[in-house]
Design a protein that fits this description.
homotetramer; about 375 residues; alpha+beta; Chorismate synthase, AroC fold; 5-stranded antiparallel beta sheet; 9 helices; 18 strands
């Protein structure tokens, strides 16, 4: 229960960090979309490890295999199954501390919920590796949205308290994929990289903030009062491990503004109704208003740190300490960037299909 | 589409601000819960207008009527229908500006989505008045959760940039209902009240931040990877008009901490596993960890302000200005507090039923 | 749980036989559909009692009240709430036998499921009166389908073993509404009426078979492999109290044919691909094939009969007898006919919306 | 869209007849259930081809591979992924008639729905081979139900018009697995086998009727008014290719009985409330009543027959003829028997979980 998302464009996620594979089913994708392994792989490669300092040494190639729903290079309308087999698995470190939950991890909650039957190797279902599955689904969603001209991008706007200078969309697009930290501001990125190195030396970890932007989203997507565009986006983004907060447009700052400042005034531009500012982040009353959909998520610092932390031995019910060894990223933010874009795309795609914006057969 | 929420405890919302009524159906409520109009009315009264400066002059009594699902004082297991008839409706101000969308409102997005057929009197479906329906559902959820000892409270922690000093749970409980601003810190509340008066004089509005807290939530609620406790809470809370951001525990601040600071260490207390801090806000890996579930939402300043604002006349496609008259709250935060508690309760209730924590028949 | 049906066009049913009202919410109806009380009332009147021998003496007028979702004579895109207040309630007969379940009724199963808290007056949620709600929703669905030329009709094809002679569609349409038994064959109808009178005299009841036909359904509706057109229709039809079986096209007879007889051969007619026969009942592989969708449902004889029947007293756990007095129809078939058409319409409407056949705004 | 079934115990089906694999995901299975490939394989083997005359010559071994959700021999609470790789694929016969739809098949409807992009090799998603996936899910459901003593069986009761003599449950259990036709009456089975041989010689096919029986189902399962036990069972069973009708208990015969005959009288047996007959098929008001749940489904004759049939060439829009070669069963009934049991088990399992009958962790 709980591993499916979306009403028309429905993704169902499965697989474990140290199990056989990670996989996702995409049901409801229109027939007739050209789709190949290459389309998926390009997105997957962006989240692969080893592109920056402090990244995990686990050397997964993450090669996607499409096992259903595609025939002769086109989607068939049947569910699309995609798998990435786990190959470089080393579960040695996870056996030691079986009964001592790692602070900041889901070990304890999963233990309670699943009665200790959950696969805790590498975090099992709670590993950041599940974003492999999300990114695979996102790749399809992005292709579909592209047919309507909708683009989704995500970039790092803050790491360890260092804020990137805001950039124009064009510059973000240009810079983000060539920045190992997925940050459009090279100067800030350099400082962030130093901070990551520092945290690594200190056997610690750091977090940050990712901004997701969807461009050319037409006005009218979202299904109030409960299936709001912002509500569904928030839910989808909180499925990314380590995300602890979500804000749209001015977000928490809106709470500190006057109405006269925060209200985005309507005006005309090129014969279309637009707003002069975008404090709403492209969403009014749970429905897109035609402006860019802008969302920011807080990513907590990686829970796995080598330094000794206090915990309890749940079997003996006594205090103990733990040093989380395994293979982890000092800062997960850069590798979560493709997952943010993926979850935005998946959500928007579902709304576009609900609204009839994308046809059921692509011609 | 989009007006139902929850998998087992499912609420379906209907009605308009200036229509016949506001209503909600609660399906999936276990049979055997003692329930009367009084239970619901007590919650509704907390969100009624006129309790503070700058509150709308619309004088709705908001009397609940239960129209199904309750027999002989107990829930029957059938859907519970609840209505509040609209009585003090004055739609005069809404007819004037039919084609000029009010900045910060859903007028424009609803117009596009529903082709102009939406009922725009008083904001129609997008009015803050729909929280009447949410609060009615929340009243039932709170009673059900109470059977397991789970309590939900909400309070104002910030208005117009003025922050309340953090208080102990006991003090929050004691103060919140007697504070017209629903703020547990009387000193801050006095300043907030002044700020609201000032904004009103300046024909402007202000926003703020509400914190919701759920106590005694057992570890194990939440259905990863998509139906996470935090994800579903965020979605439910973003259904409250004017909410633009949601954070759990340390939230955005977590993004600025080190892992060694942010990780909540496990320890033992009274023979139970607890954490020494609660930066996680009671949720790890999408599942409750037994600590209080703590969430904060940003409420934007009321979009309706009397001062003149630029907008466009969508019929003529030319620029114009608008002064939003109607009857509105200068600061909606205090009246959104019961809605925050309601949506938390509704969400937790659904998870408690999914987990089998609440039986299908109350005995 | 369980009182909502449909994915895009979603109906949620509430109310009890002897409670305050019967009601239904229709969520997902496109905006811009002209809709008035009169549209709904016309359908409701067809299922009203007292039109034939042996019909209940309960004199409900069943006047619909629309309480949300319609503004200025058009649907707004918001959920449409419809109520029928119960007025002629006489619950005297239901109090007597509280602990002795009536054979053939849901008294026993509801007692077990809801721990005795269910409202058993008049059968509560299990009364045939809930079809009032279904018919109200069906009225909207029929109007929507009509925009695409889709028509749904239903008629009595068998009562108490007396079979109506098959008639052409045109004749069925002409005859059904003027026949109190909703039977297109006047000769058979006369015999059926006599049989009903006979059963009434013998303090007994009889059942029958209803056929539903949907015309002009385009090929392509249905979402295999689980949300098949036939599967969803069957589920929707089995929600009508007393329905015990559903068959499509040749149905059970198909099981006795050869493939060479049962296969509907494709041919061309007026430039379109059609089949020469319709053993498939318009559904192949769970998807409509462009031929009329034909379904037959078996309606069991009314469970309420005045003659003495053996049962048990569940409180004392001893055998007893019961005579079901109340006010009931000797044969419920004619009054179930509008419900069959309603449930077909509701289901087809949902599929038409899923397929994008009906736009989200009617213009 | 449409490839998931169930609310708590949710199965999602994928894969094609001549594609890479057939697979199913089971989400919502409680943690702690002992589960191995062997458990699944035993059920799969029952539906394998080649066990009787007239069976397809396609020699698939159908070996299940569990790719997620099981760890150390127990379910983990995460989604269970199961695959069967297709190995003996011969798509030669399907390329020939690409534009001429086979009578009785989904070729035409799938072509319209998916714009010709559907994989039509071997019927693609519409092949009887998808029951491999259903049976894999059913194997898990049966194990879970077994924990509560619930047993599900299915058997052939009619083929080509030849009816099996009704047998006691014990005899059905004893005979069904050793009968290649899954018929508990050896005498009837012999006649059925002859009829199949005859049909094969005549290049034709035959159908039949399967009965499913669930034993020890406690009273109280089912969620009226829409998620009825019978409604959900019917929907699930109609997902099996070739099923055209479903009836419960007396089914269509109930329509011909008097109320006094059809009503099942309540009585006491071993201190429990039971009924003296089971015309209701174990379901009253959409809820199980504690008696065996009895359902019968009509299976149409195999649509694929070698003899020449009329059809149209959809590309040229002209009449043509077709001889369906491929590899098919003359009578699919025996191989559909395990699918009937599987879909009953899957549906009952979902209801048992909804009702809290099966805990979320098996201990």
């Amino acid at each position: 229960m709980g591993n499916s998302l979306g009403k028309i464009f429905t993704i169902t996620c499965f697989g474990e960090s140290h199990g056989t594979c990670l996989g996702i089913l995409v049901d409801g994708c229109p027939a007739g979309l050209p789709l190949s392994q290459t389309d998926i792989q390009a997105e997957l490669d962006k989240r692969r490890a080893g592109q920056t300092t402090g990244s995990t040494t686990r050397g997964e190639k993450d090669e996607v295999e499409i096992i259903s729903g595609v025939y002769n290079g086109f989607t068939t309308g049947a569910p699309i199954g995609m798998l990435t087999w786990n190959k470089d698995v080393d579960s040695g470190n996870y056996k030691k501390n079986k009964s001592a939950p790692r602070p900041g991890h889901a070990d304890y909650t999963a233990f309670v919920k699943y009665g200790g039957f959950n696969d805790l190797r590498g975090g099992g279902r709670f590993s950041g590796r599940i974003t492999v599955a999300l990114v695979m689904a996102g790749a399809i969603a992005r292709k579909l949205l592209g047919l309507s001209g909708i683009e989704v991008l995500a970039h790092t706007v803050e790491i360890g308290g260092i804020k990137a200078t805001p950039k124009e969309i064009a510059e973000i697009k240009r810079n983000v994929d060539r920045s190992p930290l997925r940050c459009a501001d090279p100067k800030a990125a350099a400082e962030m990289a130093q901070l990551i190195e520092k945290a690594e030396k200190e056997q610690d970890s750091i977090g940050g903030i990712i901004e997701g932007i969807a461009l050319n989203v037409p006005a009218g997507l979202g299904e109030p009062v409960f299936d709001n565009l912002d509500g569904e986006l928030a839910k989808a983004l909180l499925a990314i491990p380590a995300v602890k907060a979500v804000e749209f447009g001015a977000g928490f700052n809106a709470a500190r503004m006057r109405g006269s400042e925060n209200n985005d005034l309507f005006t005309l531009k090129d014969g279309k109704i637009v707003t002069t500012t975008n404090n709403a982040g492209g969403v009014l009353g749970g429905i897109s208003n035609g402006m860019p959909v802008v969302v920011r998520v807080a990513v907590k610092p990686t829970a796995s740190i080598p330094r000794s932390q206090e915990t309890v031995d749940a079997a003996k019910m006594e205090k103990t300490t733990i040093s989380v060894m395994g293979r982890h990223d000092v800062c997960i933010v850069p590798r979560a960037v493709p997952a943010v874009a993926a979850m935005m795309a998946v959500t928007l795609c579902d709304f576009a299909l609900r609204a009839g914006l994308i046809p059921r057969v692509i011609k």
